[in-house]
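Hey,

Quick one before I head out. I ran the complex with guanosine-5'-diphosphate overnight. Inputs first:
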Amino acid sequence: MKIHLLSGFLGGGKTTAMQAAAKALLQHDIHTGVITNDQGIKLVDGDSFKSTGIPGRQVTGGCFCCNFAALDSSIQSLVTANNTAVIFAESVGSCTDIVATVVKPLLQFYPAAQVTISAFADVRLLQLMLNGGTNLFDETVNYIYLKQLEEAGIIVVNKTDLTDQTTLAEIKVLMQQKYPAKIILYQNSLDENDIRQWIGTVNNDHSSGSLASLDISYDTYAAGEAKLGWLDQELEIHSSDNNALQQAEDLVNLINKKITGQQYAIGHLKFLINATDKISFTNDKDPTVKLKKTPSTLATLLINARVQTDAENILQQVSAAIKEIEKIYGCKIVVCSQSAFQPGYPKPLYRL
Ligand SMILES: Nc1nc2c(ncn2[C@@H]2O[C@H](COP(=O)(O)OP(=O)(O)O)[C@@H](O)[C@H]2O)c(=O)[nH]1
Ligand SMILES: [Mg+2]
């Protein structure tokens, strides 16, 4: 069995890459599955995987390290149900210390398994981090970001299509200086050839047994996680004029506008409409989104927001956006479930 872990900060492109890789392997009849992970419970990524047909499990309510038993049972469940030979498992984007708390325990539980760890980094945020950190995020959040890169055997500098050749050349020099011993890939995860190259790289990587556990301050790590607010909300939009999808689209764009308007740094802001259409905003100035719309009296919307501010502040912005859309359109928006919190102090089950 192969277990390929994906780590790296929120919005780096983990889900995109693992979905593309799983799809590619399944097309070659290789039994592949994915495991998603989050501090929340209602997840855009987990739900959107259901509509892709890729066998998947979710570890919710905390990171892999604090929920190792749930990760283990997800692995076993995939193997029992689908005879899975290759598993991609994506850890929460605010989580680090994966080598000590996940890779090493996995190697003990599954000594015959190949375990790899790839840290994904959005090239644009990476550029800021390499140039002395960014004041976009708190320095404790920057600490987590750099620890994620430090411990991984493979670093995927992702979204290379969103930068220019000169900047990329500068980043390559800086990365080579900072991480001379690591395998570094420069990748566009929307490109099948790049995904094939990443699959080839993880396939051939047998170095995880020699990866070192991090020297890390859990107090700083916990402080960084606590800077990020988490809001998950399930909504129903009831439209008497058959315009529910237009209202969902406007609501999504308005929430993004309000949160960026407050200058809160976005880890990720994800939406799932009618359990199938996924919309994602990260830290750059993402454009507004346009959906294909059919007349409909009802639309469902799942919101996952991971943003650097108190969860209460995110909730306030979302609630204000809901009220505005209701007023403009005369529609009714019902909050079906809601969870707003800051992640707690990380308490790994194992640390080796
Ligand atoms: N242009 C571009 N966009 C990407 C790439 N990889 C991911 N994305 C987008 O970046 C956003 C965040 O990606 P996601 O996979 O959800 O990141 P995660 O939080 O690390 O799982 C999504 O809108 C993706 O479509 C890439 O290589 N190029
Ligand atoms: Mg993800």
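The first helix runs from residue 14 to 27.

Talk tomorrow,
K.
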